User: Which sequence fits this backbone?
């Protein structure tokens, strides 16, 4: 439990230094834009990317990526990148999906 808290704190400090001190705001835009629209980030892959891949036949291109652990990592990296891009686009268009209290 303490390792998780320590690594999270160290990551937060490192990212704060990178963004604030070095001025890398554009390079870190994918982090804060995804954070502004978390509901889209949670469901974009299951409700948008996978159905579009099934309709276009693109899912057949991803099946060979399950043959080894490194290709599985590449599969996850591709899907995560597409999900982040979708979330960034919806945030820039100011299409927010919020939960109600």
Assistant:
């Amino acid at each position: 439990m303490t390792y998780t808290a320590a690594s999270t704190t160290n990551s937060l400090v490192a990212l704060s230094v990178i963004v604030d001190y070095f001025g890398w705001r554009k390079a870190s835009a994918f982090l804060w834009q995804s954070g502004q629209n978390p509901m889209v980030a949670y469901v974009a892959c299951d409700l948008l990317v996978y159905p579009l891949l099934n309709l276009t036949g693109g899912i057949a291109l991803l099946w060979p990526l399950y043959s080894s652990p490194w290709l599985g990592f590449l599969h996850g990296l591709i899907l995560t990148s597409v999900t982040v891009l979708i979330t960034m686009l919806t945030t820039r268009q100011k299409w927010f999906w919020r939960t109600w209290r």
In short: The two ends are 29 Å apart (CA to CA). The helical segments are 2-21, 29-36, 38-56, 59-62, 69-92. The first helix runs from residue 2 to 21. The chain has five helices and no strands.
